[in-house]
From TrEMBL:
<keyword id="KW-0460">Magnesium</keyword>
<keyword id="KW-0540">Nuclease</keyword>
<dbReference type="GO" id="GO:0016787">
    <property type="term" value="F:hydrolase activity"/>
</dbReference>
<dbReference type="InterPro" id="IPR002716">
    <property type="entry name" value="PIN_dom"/>
</dbReference>
<keyword id="KW-0479">Metal-binding</keyword>
<dbReference type="Pfam" id="PF01850">
    <property type="entry name" value="PIN"/>
</dbReference>
<feature type="domain" description="PIN">
    <location>
        <begin position="10"/>
        <end position="126"/>
    </location>
</feature>
<keyword id="KW-0378">Hydrolase</keyword>
<dbReference type="GO" id="GO:0004518">
    <property type="term" value="F:nuclease activity"/>
</dbReference>
<dbReference type="GO" id="GO:0046872">
    <property type="term" value="F:metal ion binding"/>
</dbReference>
<protein>
    <recommendedName>
        <fullName>PIN domain-containing protein</fullName>
    </recommendedName>
</protein>
<dbReference type="InterPro" id="IPR029060">
    <property type="entry name" value="PIN-like_dom_sf"/>
</dbReference>
Length: 146
């Protein structure tokens, strides 16, 4: 069974009907044949963005949390380890001139540790930066439906 680790952009787009990636994200996340890995920092970033930047955001945040806490699903919420945080800090320092922040770096660090090569993102800047510094090779960027 394949595991897909998800960046916040995919989750945000799947709950924000105004996002240009909304329909594609719904299709991808709904059709993924495997486990969807959600790093805890991604969940926090997603909830904060929905609540503060999307119309009806508090209701969308509540719906996301309901899905994640009360319904069986093919997802797993993962906490970063101290080693993940150290690797994320290393990545942020390596790419200090680039817009790679803690959450993106944590996604990459966790993918490396768990050997998850499929990363779902709509963030094209993440692709170019992460591929250059990742310890995983090859990474597969799941940008659209198969």
């Amino acid at each position: 069974m394949n595991t897909l680790i998800c960046d916040s952009g995919r989750l945000i787009a799947s709950y924000n009907v105004a996002d240009r990636h909304h329909a594609a994200c719904i299709r991808l996340l709904g059709s993924w044949q495997g486990t969807l890995a959600l790093p805890e920092p991604v969940l926090g970033e997603t909830c904060g963005f929905l609540r503060n930047h999307v119309r009806n955001g508090p209701a969308l945040e509540a719906r996301l949390l309901d899905v994640l806490t009360s319904r069986p699903g093919n997802f797993e919420i993962l906490d970063p380890t101290p080693a993940d945080r150290e690797r994320a800090a290393e990545l942020v320092s390596q790419l200090v001139a680039a817009p790679l922040g803690y959450v993106d770096a944590t996604v990459l660090a966790m993918a490396e540790r768990l050997k998850i090569v499929d990363i779902a993102t709509v963030d094209f800047k993440f692709l170019g930066m992460a591929s250059q510094v990742s310890r995983l090779s090859p990474l597969r960027w799941v940008l659209q439906e198969n």
